[in-house]
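Agenda item 2: zinc ion complex prediction
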Amino acid sequence: MKQLTIKTHAEIELIDVTDEVQAALKGLGISDGILLVFIPHTTAGVIINEGADPAVREDLIQALKRITPDLHYRHMEGNSPAHIQTALTGSSVLIPVEKGGLCLGTWQRIFFCEFDGPRTRNIWIKAI
Ligand code: ZN
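Presented output:
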């Protein structure tokens, strides 16, 4: 397993980590299989979505904020919207690997999703 560490810069932010994941894949030494990208945090997630138009990221953030309003939540830490946003995005993605490369669609990129930043975060990558 490999660990990537990234620094986030905003409270809510979608960061394209496709190149970093691809580089980590090379270090794992598998040419065919499945790559697990797992986020070991409760207020950050991971998604695969369009990377060509940065507006898609902004729209995703806007929609996630809208469906997780700051209500009177019971969680004392005060970051329940971030926990809910993480539950909605999920904590892992699986990506097929062939000939040492990630098999992603033309417009697909892997995005680390920060929901309670800025922080230093980890990404765990395991080849299957
Ligand atoms: Zn919390």
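Discussion summary: The first strand starts at residue 2 and ends at 7.
Owner for follow-up: CH.
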